[in-house]
Design brief:
Protein name: histidine kinase
Number of domains: 3
Pfam family, one: HATPase_c
GO molecular function: ATP binding; phosphorelay sensor kinase activity
Largest sheet: 5 strands, mixed
Oligomer: single chain
Keywords: ATP-binding, Coiled coil, Kinase, Membrane, Nucleotide-binding, Phosphoprotein, Transferase, Transmembrane, Transmembrane helix, Two-component regulatory system
Number of strands: 12
InterPro entries: HATPase_C_sf, HATPase_dom, His_kinase_dom, HisK_dim/P_dom, HisK_dim/P_sf, Sig_transdc_His_kin-like_C
Helix content: 55-70%
Length: 468
Amino acid sequence: MLNSLSGRFLILTVIFVMLAEVLIFVPSVARFREDFLLARLERAQIASLALLADDMISPELEAELLANAGVYNVVLRRDQMRELVLSSEVPGPIAATYDLRDPGPAQLIGGALSRLLTTEPQIIRLIGSPLREAGQLIEVTMDTADLREAMLDYGLRILLLSAMISIVTASLLFFSVRVLLVRPIKGVVAHMQAYAAAPEDARRVIRPSASVRELREAEEALQLLQTQMTQALRQKERLAQLGGAVARVSHDLRNILTSAQLFTDRIERSEDPAVRRLAPKLVNSITRAVSLCESTLAFGRAEEPAPVLTLFNLAELAHEVLEAERLAIGEHDVSLSEDIPASMMIRGDPEQIYRALSNLVRNARQAIVASGKPGEINLTALHDDDDWVIRVCDTGPGLPPKAREHLFQPFQGGARKGGSGLGLAIVVELVRGHGGTLELIRSDASGTLFEIRLPMHDMEEKRASRAR
């Protein structure tokens, strides 16, 4: 109950209403005290009229008039003369004097709080203006016992009324919040839970119905999000089905093209000059088609297997990569070099790191060969406090702007004509599996530089080292 929105709203409402009532309580009690004292002055003035009507009254009548007025003596000032009209014995010293002719709010509130906090009765003097201009001033002395009792009684009634008002107000607000806010919010939550159970079902997308503007805006935003997600899930399903179909077609097509490659070997031995001239082009076309099929099949797997992390010598692995590329260079003027410490050991999956470096070096070699100019490919490696850093740098023509826009996206980041655009996408996936990153540092007319960063420590080791 207390953890719910309506429960907390109820508690806050009670607190704020009671706070407001307290702020009202103090001025109300101060006003009550002023009215009480003014009433005493009025009763004292009425009692003094008996003496004004008859200059001589008996002591018994004078005592009765003072008792009925609730004062000990009455002093009137008329015609610039101060006259003790009624008097009796004052039982104690006068503790304070209050002038009620033109009191300020601070004076009234301070006097009221002082009276409430003083438990012992006191004798006080009151000064006020007579009614109907029956003089310039009236002054009385009185006991505060009945004043404090009246103020406490009035204050308790005010507090009781305030408590009743706060309870009624809080209850009304509580039920209003439940109807106007909590119920619609629970409806939105129910829609979200129903949609989460079957996000592909468009019938479960929420339909905005709230009358509160903010809730309706939230429902409309949720409707847009659910609609986009449902469409994305449908598109993902269609793409998955299409990917499966492409993989099957690529598999069969690869087998057909592999058989065609065997026949091209015989065609190349033909004595016909036209056939000998066209045969290399046919062989290259078939080779590119086979390569595309193999890349598509490789990328179309559900996912790359998790890397098996071991410590291995990076320099030896890089040497193997470059040796394999030298066989493919043939007569082209492309030089390969490496600058990796011979004792540098890194942790990773040797097979997957080999594939990643091979793809990057192969892309660099193909770019240089396509430019028709000599070039160089260099492999370097170093490490800092957190990462092993491997860089593949070439002096090729650089990547075209279109290729840089979709560099790591499959089937879109191809930099050469006839390329599949899968090489860098595969490298990114392999490096990400190691918790690392692949970044294009630069690519311009002077060449291209890719950088692979592999973390030296996993998350647990990082936390432990930071704790130390």
